Amino acid sequence: MPREKYRWTRGGKNKSGRGGELHVTCRNGKAKQQKEPGERGELRGNPRRWVVILNKFGHPETRGLENDVAVRDAKETRKMRRIVARRAKDCYHTLNSPSSSLFHRSLSSASSSSAVDSMGPPPKSAAALSVDSINPNVLKCEYAVRGEIVSIALRLQQELQEKPGSHPFDEILYCNIGNPQSLGQQPITFFREVLSLCDHPTILDRSETQGLFSSDSIERAWQILDQIPGRATGAYSHSQGIKGLRDTIAAGIAERDGFPADPSDIFLTDGASPAVHMMMQLLIRLDSDGILCPIPQYPLYSASIALHGGTLVPYYLDEAAGWGLEISDLKMQVEDARSKGITVRALVVINPGNPTGQVLAEDNQREIVDFCQEEGLVLLADEVYQENVYVPDKKFHSFKKISRSMGYGEKDISLVSFQSVSKGYYGECGKRGGYMEVTGFSPDIREQIYKLASVNLCSNISGQILASLVMSPPKVGDESYESYLAEKNGILSSLARRAKTLEDALNSLEGVTCNKAEGAMYLFPRILLSQKAIKAAEAAKTAPDAFYAKSLLHATGIVVVPGSGFGQVPGTWHFRTTILPQEDKIPAVVSRLTEFHQKFMDEFRD
Amino acid sequence: MSPKALDYDSLNENVKKVQYAVRGELYLRASELQKEGKKIIFTNVGNPHALGQKPLTFPRQVVALCQAPFLLDDPNVGLIFPADAIARAKHYLSLTSGGLGAYSDSRGLPGIRKEVAEFIERRDGYPSDPELIFLTDGASKGVMQILNTIIRGEGDGILVPVPQYPLYSATISLFGGSLVPYYLEETANWGLDVNNLRQSVAEARKRGITVRAMVIINPGNPTGQCLSEANLKEIIRFCYLENLVLLGDEVYQQNIYQDERPFISARKVLLDMGPPISKGVQLVSFHTVSKGYWGECGQRGGYFEMTNIPPQTVDEIYKIASISLSPNVPGQIFLGLMVNPPKPGDISYLKFVTESKGILESLRRRAQIMTDGFNSCRNVVCNFTEGAMYSFPQIHLPPKAIEAAKKARKVPDVFYCLKLLEATGISTVPGSGFGQKEGVFHLRTTILPAEEDMPAIMDSFKKFNDEFMAQYEDNRGYSRM
After folding, report:
1. Domain coordinates of chain B in residue numbers?
2. pLDDT in tens, A280-302
3. What is the CATH number of domain B8-39+357-472?
4. Within the 399-418 window of chain A, which residues sit less than 8 Å (CB to CB) from chain B?
5. Chain B residue at shortest CA distance from A452
6. Second label for B167, Cα 20 to 30 Å away, from A15, A206, A345, B291?
7. Per-residue exposure over A25-49, b if at least 16 CB sit within 10 Å of its own CB, e if not
8. ipTM score here?
9. pLDDT digits over A368-418, tens only?
10. What kind of architecture, by CATH, is found in domain B95-339?
């Protein structure tokens, strides 16, 4: 049996010459005795007491320790006694802890630990959190919607504020992001009334409230509060979201699709983005796991795939066919990826499309469902623009509805549908409300999703309430119905007009072609750039489309996102603009853009 | 047909590894029992409003007005909202680019970050830069963002106190890093011993792990201790020498229940220490609207502040934040209100102070009742809750109870907590969810049940515990001597 040994050393001295601390170290220390019940209370304070205990364990060398303590007792301050007591206590605990083997293994570093005491300069290694030492996946992410162009725009805005007239425009027009209310879109009154009442429920039964709020908003607020345990909107909810709200959402989905929806399939999230992250987290194990993404795509997907260390497998939308999705192309991409050793795990479809604005035809959706079913892919359906359809000949159909109408049930296809309060006619981006409906997963997977949701506790309650409201707006006969409908139709028809005006304007520009925005909030025109422009961009060390977008910003204050942020067929150039500037501003946008474009083309004509 | 893409076997292993006890087996069982109609006292999550704490009036008035800005033009708005709430709502709306419905800057509204910076300066006596403050959907999101930035792979270790709040263990597993535990010393009132830290680091290095960051939770969760200034200095010096990022979870900074050790922020101590340490140690501090006397958990409002983090890294963190677009705006406004509450002379000041003081004083009394209650129980020892919202008593489980647990295929403390739940409806979290030394068992309970219910709860706990111990203890007569 190895002999336990204690070593009692004095720590190194620091530069000022003051003594360091005492160290109790032990070699080959192994736990021999269990802590006895009842001893707990005695294990405090007096160092001698500790030494006695240690001796009891049969460590002969602790006798020296005892003497040391005695000497120190006389010489040193009470503080030192406390230190000794603590060290001895540590030693005791370490001996008693099952991991004590760790301790003796670390002993060889005892001398280095005295060096630590002596307060030398810090190690010369890179700073703990420098760009060289952060997670490389973080570096890999790109998110163009808020990238360099936006930083320039913010700077210009500040310059305009500080020095009006310093630029050839007097305001920055943010067309880079689908953020309707920042461009003047008004919220739906009924939704806001309900949210306001839920935030401040104590006014609900005051008579003055009747004068300020519509009666059905008061009624709805009561209904919602009654679904929340304790009516506490300030409490964490169930990790999936408040049960009553999920019931409402499920009913809304069922009404939309004509197929039942189960509230336990719904996970409420802070906007749709965290839900997408969650699914990527589940799906991606390593870089050989691939996710099929449309190109062009909304960069949330490329960014979250990069962040979670997976591989984006692109499939190209066909610009000449109105950004259509060709199943043959999908098949080719999957085979190609597989031949490279990539396990393709899921297919992302954005419908209506972002940035491309197309609305999928029902037949096309069926093909996609079949394809996922055959290939065993999870279908990740980004359906956040489901209310934003602007053409009479197209309709939004959820993938859930399509797959159920094809006869596929829970067991046949794994499907996730994302919805958000940020888009549609409501455009409530700041609320961070959204949900995913998760169907066709086994209970053990479901449990894992629930667990992931739990780590972040729950999504914000105000956003949860709003998600339930957009899925169950006022109905015919409700006091607010007519005003609600007027607001909704006003916004949607205005968006349709704006889409049309901008599309026509873009198509009238030299070298620009633009598909129709059938839905969503964007136009994604293609620009034919001259060799001269491309050379100039190279000289400025930017992508040609970024060069165009920057020039546009500097000349007009209009902020768009270069196509390279979304992906495009190599050698083609695009930009994305939202259709969100308020209608009275659209003529100015058109004339500024037209004027700029003409100048740009003239300047860089080959 | 090929197998489904998302079979359990093909799931990301890191996801499977995640454990999150606060909403684990006990919570699920409690929810089941609740559905069956049993009265459940949820003390598993620090969720004050769920247990009847009323929200502070002023912030709710302000946010309600921001939600419904059309009220601000209504001549009758003054009938139910005080003038200072109306003024404040206008102030916050003016800071936004389109009210509550517009995405803000991904770091949060600049105007609110400025208010946070001013709060930090008042608290610490050192100026703070709004550009280094990021608002988040609750503190958890912030912790996740920062750990995601730090962790490159399983070779990267994060020092985490044990017992710890499971957000840390869960997030580290999720991002595939390694948790390097350091034990808090229960006999020393959950004190943190730097010597112990050194051992943990040395041991981790032996295993080839690069220790990159250290988490401190002050006041402690689940342990409730408040760190002294001297202790914080030791920790900071340690981080300096070992080149660690210090992650300061300071979400309970308002929850202090004794006067000897007031809250002192890691940042203040760091800056007090002067160069080279004050310039060398990288620190990220977290705060939230979910705790304190606010308890606005459902709003998901929080922030983190970075000290000594190089600008390039800040840019990368900004980029990651931007992928999630922006934190929720109502939560940001709650945060603004928390750091900038009504001032003396404001119409709502008195009411605000009365409400907040009332909550804090009651929490203080409840902390006392609870720890005293536990310490009066057989085989239960509990350190005083100096701060935060929890009691973490140690339960000495008799060998027979441990055997019975084994038979039931339960971890002993889970076994105990389940029995407690079935017998009394008190839903706690077993100590194993937070980590504890081998062979030692605890449970965590919040101190949040209403004050008037507290004596009854402690009575029913005592009664259960007595019966449990009587059932499983040998030599009953002997051990009572």
Report:
1. 8-39+357-472, 95-339
2. 999 999 999 999 999 999 989 99
3. 3.90.1150.10
4. 414
5. B15
6. A345
7. bbbebebeeebeeeeeeebeeebbe
8. 0.93
9. 999 999 999 999 999 999 999 999 999 999 999 999 999 999 999 999 999
10. 3-Layer(aba) Sandwich (3.40)
